[in-house]
Amino acid sequence: MAGTLPPMRLLVTGAGGMLGQDVTAAAHRAGHDVLGLARRDLDITDADAVRAAVAAAAPDAVVNCAAWTDVDGAEADEAQAAAVNAVGPGHLASAAAATGALLVHVSTDYVFDGTAAEPYAEDAPTNPMSAYGRTKLDGERAVAEGAPRHAIVRSSWLFGSGGGNFVDTMLRLGAERDEVTVVDDQVGCPTYTGHLGPALVEIAERGLTGVIHVPGGGACSWHDLASAAFAARGLDCVIHRGRTADLGRPAPRPASSVLTSTRDDAPRLPGWRDGLAAHLSTKVPA
């Protein structure tokens, strides 16, 4: 587990984001020498800047948390999403290769189409339905092709204290309204970044490579997640069951993107309910 191996020098890109903050904090707690670069510090779409930053840091591992996460926005501007999700990781891969660093790159369940009857393991065929999913899959390929030492970590449905997320949005709406409608026809693995962050540090520490699925334990629908959050906060807001098709969102979503791992060495995270409880413990009740 994190902190049991000798200290490393870690470079965290996208360190200002929700996941990046938790990775950086976990690395510090584990006693590592950490350089966290937010977007204002390093634009990963700038190849020269990436090359210079990685060379100057001389890290043992780079953990890439930088990403375009606006799923619907990617449908309207796939080129810009691709610059961050595909081209940028390629720059990091080349820079990591030049210095011999391990590149730990974070990807998503949206590389799958959500039609499988069973959870998706690491070797499941990819088939993204959205521009976001396509750009993330292209990022995986750029990392695999450009960095001899790489780990591609797929996770899903992230929430945490360092940024906007579904759980916090629902708690706000639940406090403001008497009733809300939440879709129950999308099923996935909610993942608390406070749990995923240390797992990414552990992957870097252990030098794991290849594709690794690291979701929160268990699976549920968005409706289930919102209901659990409301119950934990004692909110009386009524939650109606909705359908994805009725939302009219620009980007299609996988109906079932539950992830699993067949790797014995993959970190196993606590269940999503444990992640929700940990997240809510960091929040002042409304």
Strand order of the largest sheet: 2-1-3-4-5-10
Q: How many DSSP E strands?
A: 12
Question: Would you list the SSEs in sequence order as H and E?
Answer: EHEHEHHEHEEHEEEHEEHEH
Please give the alpha-carbon distance between the first and last residues.
35 Å
Shape: globular
User: What is the residue-mean pLDDT, rounded to a whole number?
Assistant: 96
What do these coordinates show?
- Strand 1 (9-13), helix 1 and strand 2 (33-37) form a beta-alpha-beta unit.
- The protein has helices spanning 18-29, 47-57, 71-76, 78-99, 131-146, 166-176, 193-206, 222-233, 272-281; strands spanning 9-13, 33-37, 61-64, 102-108, 150-155, 158-159, 179-183, 187-188, 191-192, 210-213, 220-221, 238-242.
- It is an alpha/beta fold and 286 residues long.
- It has a domain at 9-165 and 191-217 and 258-269: Rossmann fold (3-Layer(aba) Sandwich).
